[in-house]
Design a protein that fits this description.
single chain; alpha+beta; two-stranded antiparallel ribbon; about 10% helix
Length: about 90
């Protein structure tokens, strides 16, 4: 699986993971779509993916995956959608 990511605090010019000698399977840092989705949510400041249904029962919007935080630069980026403000630290 190949993915190109840019913006949102992602550090440019990096490769995450490696393939085996035949490029058939991941050899290092296996990543699935759930990890990419979690990384995008993390970049948007959405780390709590719990919700409540109409009956008040809690459920997970996404149970699997983890954000690939090592792909982010040392600078932190925060987006405040309520005030339409972008802050880079």
């Amino acid at each position: 699986m190949s993915v190109l990511m840019a913006g949102g605090g992602i550090r440019g010019g990096q490769v995450y993971g490696a393939s085996d000698r035949r490029t058939a399977f991941p050899a290092d840092n296996r990543v699935g779509p759930e990890h990419i989705a979690r990384t995008v949510f993390h970049a948007m400041g959405i780390d709590d993916l719990h919700a409540t249904d109409r009956e008040g029962r809690p459920f997970h919007l996404m149970e699997e995956g983890r954000p690939l935080t090592s792909c982010f630069s040392a600078k932190s980026v925060s987006i405040d959608f309520s005030n339409a403000r972008l802050t880079i630290h």
